[in-house]
């Protein structure tokens, strides 16, 4: 069969500087493989090379959320169906070894076998903007916490006059007091003045992260409300949890195939764990943990403030369920409600 008539499937093994591609036919025979730089010109050259081998139907790409984001986005823009390929099975890797050509071929075979069925996050819309701001905000929060912990530990080991003065203060009072310290820069060899300078430096760092966190939080809340007004109106959800759920799905609504798929994506789909006369389900420990955490927070808020949820919890408690099991059920019900809200918001984004 001539290259122009045969149908082929592509696979891409991605790295920082280069990507390795392989193409196979529908019978699983390897046709060719090639290496390309991880640049826009390299993506275009790789796609042209693949199409020269035959009729390209699908391409499996490793690491679409990292090194493979650029090539996956380029191929999608060129009308190619791109599928996210999971990490290769370790048992198979031990048998066949590892190299870039082997991994690229394995990615193509994963698509052919139907194992790779997830659409990658395209990261080309407002949800990607929300993700970037959330990463920056979370980084600022972690840095502030680390700086505040350092400040408190330094107070414990500070010279006694400073320690006596600062130890009883709350976190906010401690930061404000340390920011007002005036060390004698000419006598930094003395521990008291060196401690004042160090404490003031760390306190000013905490204040800087406070300002940065508030600014990023404001921008993040505005973007989230604009992107998902229907989801933001769901009882128990706030801007932080809504943004986490949006990031779990990504910019392409085709990842929301069904309500059950969304529940599985967030790790709240019940897994059968029955045996003999025992009929039960166990916790699903897979899925996106940030999305699972968002649903957990919303479920806890509802159990505390929503009369319907509290009545449900009381009824299930009398039936013998523990509180973790009740929360698990609430998260599954909540996923169903949020799914329809997200569908409505994504429909507006795509218009």
Automatic annotation (TrEMBL):
The superkingdom of the source organism is Bacteria
What species is this protein from?
Mycobacterium bohemicum DSM 44277
This chain belongs to which protein, by name? Putative transposase
Domain (Transposase IS116/IS110/IS902 C-terminal) ranges:
234-312
GO biological process assignments: DNA transposition
> Which GO MF terms are attached to this record?
DNA binding; transposase activity
InterPro entries from the xrefs? Transp_IS110-like_N, Transpos_IS110, Transposase_20
User: Residues in domain Transposase IS110-like N-terminal?
Assistant: 11-154
């Amino acid at each position: 069969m001539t290259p122009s008539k045969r149908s082929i499937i592509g696979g891409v093994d991605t790295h920082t500087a280069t990507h390795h591609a392989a193409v196979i036919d529908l019978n699983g025979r390897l046709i060719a493989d090639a290496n390309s730089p991880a640049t826009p010109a390299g993506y275009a050259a790789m796609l042209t090379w693949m199409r020269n081998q035959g009729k390209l139907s699908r391409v499996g790409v490793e690491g679409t959320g990292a090194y493979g984001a650029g090539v996956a986005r380029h191929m999608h823009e060129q009308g190619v169906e791109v599928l996210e390929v999971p990490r290769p099975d370790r048992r198979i890797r031990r048998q066949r070894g590892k190299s870039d050509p082997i991994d690229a071929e394995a990615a193509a075979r994963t698509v052919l076998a139907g194992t790779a069925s997830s659409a990658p996050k395209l990261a080309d819309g407002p949800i990607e903007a929300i993700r970037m701001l959330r990463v920056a905000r979370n980084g600022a929060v972690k840095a502030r916490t680390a700086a505040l912990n350092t400040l408190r530990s330094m107070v414990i080991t500070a010279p006694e006059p400073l320690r006596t003065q600062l130890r009883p203060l709350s976190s906010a009072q401690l930061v404000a007091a340390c920011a007002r310290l005036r060390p004698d820069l000419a006598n930094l060899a003395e521990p008291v003045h060196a401690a004042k300078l160090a404490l003031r430096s760390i306190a000013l760092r905490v204040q800087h992260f406070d300002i940065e966190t508030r600014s990023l939080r404001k921008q993040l809340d505005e973007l989230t409300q604009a992107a998902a007004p229907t989801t933001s109106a769901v009882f128990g959800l706030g801007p932080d949890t809504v943004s986490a759920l949006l990031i779990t799905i990504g910019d392409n609504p085709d990842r929301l195939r069904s309500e059950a798929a969304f529940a599985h994506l967030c790790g709240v789909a019940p897994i059968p764990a029955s045996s003999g006369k025992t009929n039960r389900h166990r916790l699903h420990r897979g899925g996106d943990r940030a999305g699972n955490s968002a649903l957990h927070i919303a479920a806890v808020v509802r159990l505390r403030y929503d009369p319907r949820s509290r009545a449900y919890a009381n009824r299930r408690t009398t039936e013998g369920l523990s509180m973790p099991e009740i929360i698990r059920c609430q998260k599954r019900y909540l996923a169903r409600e949020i799914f329809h809200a997200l569908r409505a918001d994504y429909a507006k984004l795509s218009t």
